[in-house]
Write a structure and sequence with these properties.
With 448 residues, this protein is mainly α. The protein has three domains: 123 residues, MgtE N-terminal domain-like (MgtE N-terminal fold), CATH 1.25.60.10; 118 residues, CBS-domain (Roll), CATH 3.10.580.10; 171 residues, SLC41 divalent cation transporters, integral membrane domain (Tetracycline Repressor, domain 2, Orthogonal Bundle), CATH 1.10.357.20. The chain contains 21 helices and six strands. The strands form two sheets. A three-stranded mixed sheet has the order 1-2-3. Strands 4-5-6 form a three-stranded mixed sheet. A hairpin with a 5-residue loop joins β2 and β3. The radius of gyration is 29 Å and the shape is globular. The model has no long low-confidence stretch (mean pLDDT 81). It comes from Tessaracoccus antarcticus. Homodimer. Keywords: CBS domain, Cell membrane, Magnesium, Membrane, Metal-binding, Transmembrane, Transmembrane helix, Transport. This is Magnesium transporter MgtE. Pfam families: CBS, MgtE, MgtE_N.
Length: 448
């Protein structure tokens, strides 16, 4: 057994800064691949390429497969074509396509031309599907079992392709036209008599359409608890398979993207410490500009009611409280409904039920918060101010929850990302609306 050599981050950085390749090579020899991956993701530019060049062939393939796709893409751009050709050839077709999506067209075409005929054909199958579809993320390397096989023949077929296939634990059973008839588990095959026909062990298969969204298919695979989900075309012909580890990776990417957009930024792919500052700025600046423009509505509302504020300065004290409460209420509703959409608990046709529920929730929250606001501000500033605050909180919470719950459904209806319509935009909208409600109630009750 090869002894696993460990090194500290400082030792690696010192060797790189001193350009001591002999010491660096000794550190990497026999080192844990996971440790090398972590350090590569933290490094930038030529340092990353230098470390990768010093790895043995087996180490290089193992490490490269463990890297996320943006880091793989950055590494390929730094290395010479001949240095990446062998690694690219050994990748699985779905991983190969994900890497190609990260590369400039010229480099991608050059790598594709360097593939062997069989690997190029498998990669082309995955490339043929639209970005974002499960066909783009599936593996076309599937062990299929003909329906007229015996158990012994099926086991032999699985054993002969065990090293090249994505998985052999779930085996699709097909007819002569490659139409999917069901699946059979490896455990069931091992437990059966080798002379038994496979058709006696076949069970109905849950499938994914190759053109459906990757996140939808991945969530179905995860919820069903399957090790793999066959992927079929519109004629139920088998085109690939989605394994549970790939499904979980897709869901993790989707969750990271949703969390970033709910916070008003584009997701940063790759390791944070190795991401160029320019890319971090680009991921945030557009959203900040959009939100700044939206926030100008709040300023305009304040200007409209400037005379009202000048007559009763105390009203300005409660502005942050009211718009903050409204924004938080809307964000809570949006986050809840966005999650329900992602899990399939809510669909577009449920919009009326969602609106009704969120309106009721908002009203109940408004009664609770408004009641407290009425009592506290009434004691401190008089019943008039207390009534204004209480009614404003009741109205703002109801409106905010209703709008927050509706926006993700509107986004879904127009085929946009629900997370984009969530927290930042809702906060801006509720700020302006809340001020209009606040000053309108104040003028009505206080007569100013």
């Amino acid at each position: 057994m090869t002894q696993q050599v460990t090194f500290t981050r400082d030792e690696l950085r010192d060797a790189l800064s001193e350009n001591d390749l002999t010491r660096l090579s000794a550190m990497l020899h026999g080192a844990d691949p996971g440790e090398i991956v972590e350090e590569l993701r933290r490094l930038r530019g030529e340092d990353r390429a230098i470390v990768f060049r010093l790895l043995s062939k087996d180490q290089a393939l193992d490490v490269f497969e463990r890297l996320d796709h943006p880091t793989q893409g950055d590494l390929v751009r730094l290395l010479q074509a001949h240095e990446t050709a062998a690694v690219f050839e050994d990748l699985d077709p779905d991983d190969r396509v994900s890497l190609l999506d990260e590369l400039p067209a010229g480099i991608a075409a050059k790598l594709m031309r360097g593939l062997s005929g069989g690997e190029r054909e498998l990669t082309a199958v995955v490339l043929g599907y639209a970005s974002g579809s499960i066909g783009r993320r599936m593996s076309p390397e599937v062990v299929t079992i003909p329906i007229d096989s015996t158990v012994g023949q099926a086991l032999g077929r699985a054993k002969s392709r065990a090293l090249e296939a994505e998985t052999i634990y779930t085996l699709p059973v097909v007819d002569q036209s490659r139409r999917l008839l069901g699946v059979v588990g490896l455990r069931d095959l091992l437990a059966a008599d080798e002379a038994s026909p496979v058709r006696d062990l076949v069970v109905k298969a849950n499938t994914a359409q190759a053109t459906e969204p990757a996140e939808v298919a991945a969530r179905r695979c995860s919820e069903l608890g399957h090790l793999a989900l066959p992927v079929v075309d519109h004629e139920d012909r088998l085109v690939g398979i989605l394994t549970v580890d790939d499904a979980l990776a897709i869901l993790e990417e989707a969750e990271s993207e949703d969390q970033a957009r709910m916070s008003g930024t584009e997701p940063v792919r790759g390791h944070y410490l190795a991401t160029p500052l320019s890319r971090l700025v680009r991921s945030r600046v557009v959203w900040l500009l959009v939100l700044a423009i939206g926030a100008s509505l709040t300023v305009q509302v304040l200007e409209i009611f400037e005379a009202t504020l000048s007559q009763m300065i105390v009203l300005s004290v409660f502005v942050p409280l009211l718009i903050g409460t409204g924004g938080n209420t809307g964000n809570q509703a949006a986050t809840t409904v966005t999650r329900a959409l992602a899990l399939g608990e809510v669909r577009g046709r449920d919009w009326f039920r969602v609106v009704r529920r969120e309106m009721a929730v908002g009203a109940m929250l408004g009664v609770t918060l408004g009641g407290l606001g009425f009592v506290i501000t009434g004691l401190l500033y008089g019943l008039g101010i207390g009534s204004v605050i209480g009614l404003t909180l009741l109205t703002v919470c109801t409106v905010a929850a209703t709008v927050g719950g509706t926006m993700p459904l509107v986004a879904k209806a127009v085929h946009a990302d629900p997370a984009v319509f969530s927290n930042p935009f809702i906060s801006t909208f509720i700020d302006a609306t809340g001020l209009l409600v606040y000053f309108g109630i104040a003028k009505l009750i206080l007569g100013i």
